[in-house]
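Q: Could you fold this chain for me?
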Amino acid sequence: MTDSERFHLTLTAAGRPVAHGWWGSEAVARDKFTTWVGDWGKPGARITLVDEETGETLTTWPDES
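A: Sure. Below is the predicted structure, expressed as structure tokens.
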């Protein structure tokens, strides 16, 4: 993994991967997350942002709480 691949964003629909993106900056990745929710956040979709270095899920849509 390179620094430019640290923050991994995935979009799934009906349990299948639809799109992926990797960014080196958490701030940029979170901005992309917000954009993807606005563009693709529909019933049946799931958007997840993971820190690949730590393995931590940073945020998901829809929110799991």
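A (continued): The first helix runs from residue 26 to 40.
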